[in-house]
Amino acid sequence: xxxxxxxxxxxxxxxxxGDSGVGKSNLLSRFTRNEFNLESKSTIGVEFATRSxxxxxxxxxxxxxxxxxxxxxxxITSAYYRGAVxxxxxxxxxxxxxxxxxxxxxxxxxxxxxxxxxxxxxxxKSDLRHLRxxxxxxxxAFAEKNNLSFIETSALDSTNVETAFQNILTEIYxxxxxxxxxxxPDDENSPSNNVQTITVAPTDNSADxxxxxx
Length: 214
Ligand code: GDP
Ligand code: MG
What we know:
Layout (H helix, E strand, L loop, with lengths): L9 E8 L6 H10 L14 E8 L2 E8 L12 H4 L4 E7 L3 H5 L1 H11 L5 E7 L11 H10 L3 E4 L8 H23 L21 H9 L1
This protein binds guanosine-5'-diphosphate (GDP) and magnesium ion.
Protein backbone atom coordinates (compact mmCIF):
# COMPACT_ATOMS: atom_id res chain seq x y z
CA UNK A 1 0.00 0.00 0.00
CA UNK A 2 1.47 3.32 -1.01
CA UNK A 3 1.69 6.26 1.33
CA UNK A 4 2.52 9.78 0.30
CA UNK A 5 6.13 9.11 1.27
CA UNK A 6 6.35 6.48 -1.39
CA UNK A 7 5.26 8.77 -4.19
CA UNK A 8 8.22 9.88 -6.21
CA UNK A 9 9.24 10.23 -9.83
CA UNK A 10 12.84 9.12 -9.42
CA UNK A 11 14.77 7.17 -6.82
CA UNK A 12 18.50 7.85 -6.80
CA UNK A 13 21.04 5.95 -4.74
CA UNK A 14 23.90 8.18 -3.64
CA UNK A 15 26.87 6.90 -1.61
CA UNK A 16 29.02 8.76 0.89
CA UNK A 17 32.71 7.93 0.76
CA GLY A 18 35.94 9.36 2.13
CA ASP A 19 38.20 8.81 5.12
CA SER A 20 36.90 8.10 8.57
CA GLY A 21 36.16 11.21 10.63
CA VAL A 22 35.61 13.66 7.75
CA GLY A 23 31.93 14.11 8.62
CA LYS A 24 30.06 11.77 6.27
CA SER A 25 27.57 10.56 8.89
CA ASN A 26 26.92 14.11 10.01
CA LEU A 27 26.35 15.35 6.46
CA LEU A 28 23.78 12.60 6.14
CA SER A 29 22.05 13.38 9.44
CA ARG A 30 22.12 17.11 8.71
CA PHE A 31 20.51 16.62 5.32
CA THR A 32 17.94 13.98 6.23
CA ARG A 33 17.05 14.89 9.84
CA ASN A 34 18.66 18.30 10.40
CA GLU A 35 20.74 16.81 13.20
CA PHE A 36 24.41 17.08 14.13
CA ASN A 37 26.45 14.99 16.60
CA LEU A 38 29.62 16.30 18.17
CA GLU A 39 30.66 12.80 19.08
CA SER A 40 31.65 10.40 16.39
CA LYS A 41 29.51 7.30 16.58
CA SER A 42 31.14 5.37 13.83
CA THR A 43 29.94 1.97 14.94
CA ILE A 44 26.27 2.85 15.16
CA GLY A 45 25.61 3.58 11.56
CA VAL A 46 22.48 3.44 9.53
CA GLU A 47 22.73 1.73 6.18
CA PHE A 48 21.00 4.55 4.40
CA ALA A 49 18.59 7.41 4.96
CA THR A 50 16.20 9.02 2.53
CA ARG A 51 14.85 12.44 1.77
CA SER A 52 12.78 13.66 -1.13
CA UNK A 53 13.36 16.97 -2.87
CA UNK A 54 11.76 18.70 -5.83
CA UNK A 55 13.74 19.25 -9.01
CA UNK A 56 12.13 20.70 -12.10
CA UNK A 57 8.65 19.87 -10.75
CA UNK A 58 9.62 16.24 -10.15
CA UNK A 59 9.93 14.47 -6.83
CA UNK A 60 13.36 12.99 -6.44
CA UNK A 61 13.78 10.54 -3.62
CA UNK A 62 17.41 10.38 -2.57
CA UNK A 63 18.53 7.21 -0.88
CA UNK A 64 21.82 8.16 0.70
CA UNK A 65 24.11 5.41 1.91
CA UNK A 66 26.55 5.71 4.77
CA UNK A 67 29.54 3.45 5.31
CA UNK A 68 28.77 2.89 9.00
CA UNK A 69 32.49 2.97 9.73
CA UNK A 70 33.53 0.26 7.25
CA UNK A 71 36.02 2.66 5.65
CA UNK A 72 38.27 2.36 8.71
CA UNK A 73 39.07 -1.17 7.76
CA UNK A 74 39.06 -0.54 4.03
CA UNK A 75 36.25 -3.07 3.96
CA ILE A 76 33.62 -1.36 1.85
CA THR A 77 31.93 -4.07 -0.12
CA SER A 78 31.06 -3.77 -3.78
CA ALA A 79 27.40 -4.06 -2.76
CA TYR A 80 27.77 -0.60 -1.26
CA TYR A 81 28.43 0.86 -4.70
CA ARG A 82 25.96 -1.32 -6.58
CA GLY A 83 23.28 0.74 -8.29
CA ALA A 84 24.71 4.06 -7.08
CA VAL A 85 24.18 6.93 -9.50
CA UNK A 86 26.01 9.50 -7.38
CA UNK A 87 28.86 9.74 -4.87
CA UNK A 88 29.81 12.45 -2.42
CA UNK A 89 33.56 12.09 -1.93
CA UNK A 90 34.21 13.86 1.36
CA UNK A 91 37.45 15.16 2.88
CA UNK A 92 38.13 17.38 5.90
CA UNK A 93 39.46 20.84 4.97
CA UNK A 94 41.43 20.85 8.24
CA UNK A 95 43.13 17.47 7.65
CA UNK A 96 45.40 17.39 4.63
CA UNK A 97 45.77 13.62 4.65
CA UNK A 98 42.05 13.15 4.07
CA UNK A 99 42.45 15.30 0.93
CA UNK A 100 45.50 13.36 -0.24
CA UNK A 101 43.45 10.18 0.09
CA UNK A 102 40.84 11.48 -2.37
CA UNK A 103 42.92 9.88 -5.16
CA UNK A 104 42.51 6.50 -3.49
CA UNK A 105 38.79 6.95 -3.21
CA UNK A 106 38.56 7.87 -6.87
CA UNK A 107 40.37 4.66 -7.72
CA UNK A 108 37.97 2.75 -5.48
CA UNK A 109 35.07 4.30 -7.41
CA UNK A 110 36.65 3.44 -10.75
CA UNK A 111 37.06 -0.17 -9.60
CA UNK A 112 33.66 -0.69 -8.00
CA UNK A 113 31.12 1.85 -9.18
CA UNK A 114 29.30 2.41 -12.45
CA UNK A 115 31.41 4.31 -15.01
CA UNK A 116 28.78 7.02 -15.32
CA UNK A 117 28.46 7.74 -11.62
CA UNK A 118 28.25 11.47 -10.84
CA UNK A 119 30.94 12.44 -8.33
CA UNK A 120 31.01 15.53 -6.18
CA UNK A 121 34.12 16.41 -4.19
CA UNK A 122 33.07 17.80 -0.81
CA UNK A 123 35.44 19.70 1.49
CA UNK A 124 33.64 19.44 4.82
CA LYS A 125 34.19 21.32 8.13
CA SER A 126 34.44 24.72 6.42
CA ASP A 127 33.62 26.22 9.85
CA LEU A 128 37.17 25.33 10.99
CA ARG A 129 38.62 28.40 9.24
CA HIS A 130 41.54 28.80 11.63
CA LEU A 131 42.63 25.19 11.05
CA ARG A 132 42.30 25.11 7.27
CA UNK A 133 44.92 22.84 5.69
CA UNK A 134 43.49 22.51 2.17
CA UNK A 135 43.16 25.73 0.12
CA UNK A 136 39.81 26.04 -1.66
CA UNK A 137 41.46 26.91 -4.99
CA UNK A 138 43.66 23.84 -4.93
CA UNK A 139 40.72 21.50 -4.35
CA UNK A 140 38.67 23.31 -6.97
CA ALA A 141 41.44 22.90 -9.56
CA PHE A 142 41.83 19.23 -8.67
CA ALA A 143 38.07 18.72 -9.08
CA GLU A 144 38.06 20.44 -12.48
CA LYS A 145 40.97 18.35 -13.68
CA ASN A 146 39.18 15.18 -12.66
CA ASN A 147 35.75 16.19 -13.93
CA LEU A 148 34.15 16.34 -10.51
CA SER A 149 31.86 18.99 -9.17
CA PHE A 150 33.10 20.69 -6.03
CA ILE A 151 31.70 22.33 -2.92
CA GLU A 152 32.76 23.15 0.63
CA THR A 153 30.29 22.38 3.41
CA SER A 154 29.87 22.44 7.14
CA ALA A 155 27.64 19.82 8.69
CA LEU A 156 28.14 21.68 11.97
CA ASP A 157 26.77 25.08 10.94
CA SER A 158 24.78 23.74 7.94
CA THR A 159 26.63 25.78 5.32
CA ASN A 160 26.05 24.41 1.83
CA VAL A 161 24.72 21.03 2.98
CA GLU A 162 21.37 21.52 1.23
CA THR A 163 23.13 22.96 -1.80
CA ALA A 164 25.55 20.03 -2.07
CA PHE A 165 22.77 17.43 -2.14
CA GLN A 166 20.51 19.60 -4.27
CA ASN A 167 23.31 20.09 -6.83
CA ILE A 168 24.32 16.45 -7.15
CA LEU A 169 20.68 15.29 -7.36
CA THR A 170 19.95 17.91 -10.01
CA GLU A 171 23.03 16.86 -11.96
CA ILE A 172 21.94 13.21 -11.84
CA TYR A 173 18.38 14.17 -12.77
CA UNK A 174 19.58 16.06 -15.84
CA UNK A 175 21.62 13.11 -17.04
CA UNK A 176 18.87 10.56 -16.40
CA UNK A 177 16.10 12.65 -17.94
CA UNK A 178 18.22 13.40 -21.03
CA UNK A 179 18.94 9.72 -21.41
CA UNK A 180 15.23 8.94 -21.12
CA UNK A 181 14.37 11.34 -23.92
CA UNK A 182 17.05 9.77 -26.10
CA UNK A 183 16.00 6.21 -25.27
CA UNK A 184 12.23 6.42 -25.46
CA PRO A 185 10.41 5.95 -28.76
CA ASP A 186 8.40 9.02 -29.90
CA ASP A 187 5.01 7.61 -28.95
CA GLU A 188 6.18 6.93 -25.40
CA ASN A 189 7.35 10.45 -24.86
CA SER A 190 4.26 11.68 -23.04
CA PRO A 191 4.65 12.96 -19.46
CA SER A 192 2.73 9.99 -18.06
CA ASN A 193 5.48 7.69 -19.25
CA ASN A 194 8.13 9.80 -17.70
CA VAL A 195 8.51 7.87 -14.46
CA GLN A 196 11.68 5.94 -14.01
CA THR A 197 12.93 4.14 -10.96
CA ILE A 198 16.61 3.57 -10.49
CA THR A 199 16.53 0.27 -8.68
CA VAL A 200 18.88 -0.54 -5.87
CA ALA A 201 19.99 -4.10 -5.44
CA PRO A 202 19.87 -5.61 -1.96
CA THR A 203 23.18 -5.53 -0.11
CA ASP A 204 23.30 -8.47 2.20
CA ASN A 205 23.73 -12.00 1.00
CA SER A 206 20.58 -13.37 2.51
CA ALA A 207 18.54 -10.84 0.60
CA ASP A 208 20.51 -11.70 -2.52
CA UNK A 209 19.66 -15.33 -2.12
CA UNK A 210 16.04 -14.62 -1.47
CA UNK A 211 15.82 -12.63 -4.64
CA UNK A 212 17.48 -15.29 -6.70
CA UNK A 213 15.37 -18.14 -5.43
CA UNK A 214 11.91 -16.43 -5.63
P1 GDP B 1 32.55 10.07 9.43
O1 GDP B 1 33.49 9.12 10.09
O2 GDP B 1 33.08 10.53 8.10
O3 GDP B 1 31.15 9.55 9.34
O4 GDP B 1 32.51 11.38 10.33
P2 GDP B 1 31.46 11.81 11.45
O5 GDP B 1 30.21 12.36 10.82
O6 GDP B 1 31.29 10.71 12.42
O7 GDP B 1 32.22 13.05 12.10
C1 GDP B 1 33.51 12.89 12.70
C2 GDP B 1 33.74 14.01 13.70
O8 GDP B 1 33.80 15.27 13.03
C3 GDP B 1 32.63 14.15 14.75
O9 GDP B 1 33.20 14.48 15.98
C4 GDP B 1 31.78 15.29 14.24
O10 GDP B 1 31.14 15.97 15.26
C5 GDP B 1 32.82 16.15 13.52
N1 GDP B 1 32.25 16.90 12.38
C6 GDP B 1 31.49 16.42 11.37
N2 GDP B 1 31.17 17.40 10.51
C7 GDP B 1 31.73 18.52 10.98
C8 GDP B 1 31.77 19.88 10.54
O11 GDP B 1 31.20 20.26 9.50
N3 GDP B 1 32.48 20.78 11.30
C9 GDP B 1 33.13 20.40 12.44
N4 GDP B 1 33.80 21.36 13.10
N5 GDP B 1 33.12 19.14 12.89
C10 GDP B 1 32.43 18.21 12.18
MG1 MG C 1 30.44 7.67 9.81
